[in-house]
Amino acid sequence: MILLEGKPVAQNIKARVSERAKSFLNTFGRKPGLAVVLVGGDPASQVYVGHKVKACEELGLASFRHALPEDISQAELNLLIENLNKDSLVDGILVQSPLPKHLSFSEVLDRIAPQKDADGLTPENVGLAWSGRPRVVPCTPAGIIELLKYYQISLERKNVVVIGRSDIVGKPMAQLFLQNNATVTICHSKTKALEEVAKQADIVVAAIGKRNYFTKEFFDRDAVVIDVGIHRLEQGMLCGDVFFKDVKESVRAITPVPGGVGPLTIAMLMQNTVTLAELRV
Ligand code: NAD
What is the pLDDT of residues 139-149, one digit of tens each? Predict the structure, then answer.
């Protein structure tokens, strides 16, 4: 079994991003800037935002952290986004999800200027990606493509099954595989005979948000398994959507959790921010 570790891939991406950030600073006299908006006190979201801010510092990007109270109104949040759209020091805007229930993420996405959309989730950027003219694409799926390339797992002519159809992972993941000449099946909570469908695949991406859900019965012996899920267990340890212990010796390659897909998401966010900064100037 090949263990598909994300760290070396993320390090490569970060080294390139750091070089680009340095040359941006030399040319334009300022760092590429990322605004990170966090609403409320969700502990996991606070940790993610902390990691994003730290990565900016490490790679020579400026970060602008906006921590807003849980009970902020949609109008106030919208106003902040509009101000960030106008702020010349901000190249990328990321609103950490999930938002509290009374707020609409779609309304936020409708307001973020597509030229500053660090996660590639606004309707314009989704449309550009599906038209084969990507500006920036969502970080987690983009990172997974980088991971597969790094480990020289070719995508052309492969049968890929993506399990999960969220806007942030499943759908953009399917689009990127299609772009790379794979044949893609998207599965979800209403898919019939999921186990049989998954078993046909050369590559499976598991992104359903259910801990240790996928056992070895779901995978062909030659399958490459990418686990996007991330869950904190009672003892503080992390696990994925794939039951790693059960599956690891029964497939060709698999990502660990932690240390698989996770490190790539942040690296790609940094890359997207620098790309947007370069495009804006
Ligand atoms: P989501 O809840 O928005 O979407 C889950 C999808 O899974 C839905 O489309 C649903 O139809 C499908 N699904 C649910 N149960 C299913 C089942 N039993 N069988 C088949 N399909 C089923 O989740 P998301 O935002 O896409 O995230 C998925 C997981 O990935 C979560 O654990 C999340 O924490 C994790 N995640 C990790 C990273 C990272 O950087 N590693 C980034 C984003 C999300």
Answer: 999 999 999 99
The residue annotated as part of the active site, out of 117, 119, 202, 241, is: 119
Token readout for 275 is 């790309």
pTM: 0.97
Q: What is the pLDDT of residues 19-52, one digit of tens each?
A: 999 999 999 999 999 999 999 999 989 999 999 9
Instruction: Delineate the domains of the chain, giving CATH numbers in brackets.
Output: 29-113 (3.40.50.10860), 139-262 (3.40.50.720)
Helices (H) and strands (E) in the chain, counts: 10, 11
From 31, 52, 116, 171, the catalytic residue: 52
- Respond yes or no: is residue 96 known to be catalytic: yes
Q: With contact defined as beta carbons under 8 Å apart, do 6 and 262 qualify?
A: yes
Vertex 226 angle, CA 259 and 92, to 5°:
65
Ligand 1 nearest atom to the CA of residue 266, by list position: 40
pLDDT of residue 123: 98
Does the annotation count 87 as an active-site position? Answer: no
